[in-house]
Amino acid sequence: MTRIIIQGINGRMGKALCELIEQREDCRVVGGVDITSPSGAIPVAASLEELNLPADVLIDFSCPAATKSALRFCAKNALPCVICTTGLDEEAEALIAEASACCAVFKSANMSMGINLLARLARQAAAALGLEYDIEIIEKHHHNKVDAPSGTALLLADEINKAASEPYEYVYDRHAVRRKRSPHEIGLHAVRGGSIVGEHEILFCGPDEVITLAHSAGSRRVFANGAVNAAVFLSRKGPGLYTMEDLMQELL
């Protein structure tokens, strides 16, 4: 039985995680970290140090500042951690690398199995189609999402770049660029509105045809399911940096 602590337990993703874990028999939530601590069966504290509970793995769905604190704690206490927070800066990325030398760290810009399959397909399409096809990525999220473009859009662009003979340039805003589009660029476009959970579309625009790869999340449950699978997977691993690619290889 995998014992899980959730950082950000009172947020929308934290609640989705709790609901999903309740239905599973291979794991359980033993505690949570959040700035609010409502009464309930699960103990919740403002920090991991204050919570002070034995656990097998941490799932972090919080904010960049809280993620940094969690990484320091996990490195110090050799606690495996699944990092689901996006919009991380260079300091956080450096902490991930440092922590992975002391404990198992799982990081993915998107915890959906479908999105990571889409990334594989995008890489294969880019390798097959080449520079004759212009690439545009459109991502849509709810109006509360802060970072843009999404971490998932960047993940997709990075996967496409792996198939490129020379790196693509990422172009985020065309209105200030008065020039013909270069074949060596990927356009990234962010839409924010309403309660859109997450939609990603990749356009390969070639001579006389457009090939579209797309993924739409119907609920946060798809991300929660991926995070829980990652937590159970990670609880059995030694120090190192793990990704959705590692999890998919084990599951598929």
List key phrases describing it:
12 strands; five-stranded mixed sheet; single chain; elongated; alpha/beta; 35% helix; 252 residues; seven-stranded parallel sheet; 26% strand
Q: What is the total tally of β strands? A: 12
- How large is the radius of gyration? 19 Å
Class of secondary structure makeup? alpha/beta
Oligomer: single chain
Q: What is the residue-mean pLDDT, rounded to a whole number? A: 93
Q: Enumerate the spans where pLDDT stays under 50 for 5 or more consecutive residues.
A: none
Share in β-strands? 25-35%
Number of helices: 8
Write the H/E string, N to C: EHEEHEHEHEHEHEEEEHEH
**Helix fraction?**
25-40%
Distance between the termini: 22 Å
Largest sheet geometry: 7 strands, parallel
Approximate shape? elongated
> Reading side by side through the largest sheet, how are the strands ordered?
3-2-1-4-5-6-12
Question: What this model shows, in words?
Answer:
A seven-stranded parallel sheet has the order 3-2-1-4-5-6-12, sandwiched between helices. A five-stranded mixed sheet has the order 8-9-7-10-11, with helices on one face. The chain is elongated. The protein is built from eight helices and twelve strands. It is of the alpha/beta class and 252 residues long. The mean pLDDT is 93. Helix 3 (64-77) links the parallel strand 4 and strand 5.
Give the SSE layout.
Blueprint: E1 2-7, H1 12-22, E2 27-33, E3 44-45, H2 48-51, E4 57-60, H3 64-77, E5 81-83, H4 90-99, E6 104-107, H5 113-129, E7 134-141, H6 151-161, E8 169-171, E9 185-192, E10 198-206, E11 209-217, H7 221-234, E12 240-242, H8 244-251
Parallel strand pairs: 1-2, 1-4, 2-3, 4-5, 5-6, 6-12, 7-9, 8-9
Antiparallel strand pairs: 7-10, 10-11
Helix pairs in contact: 1-7, 3-4, 5-6
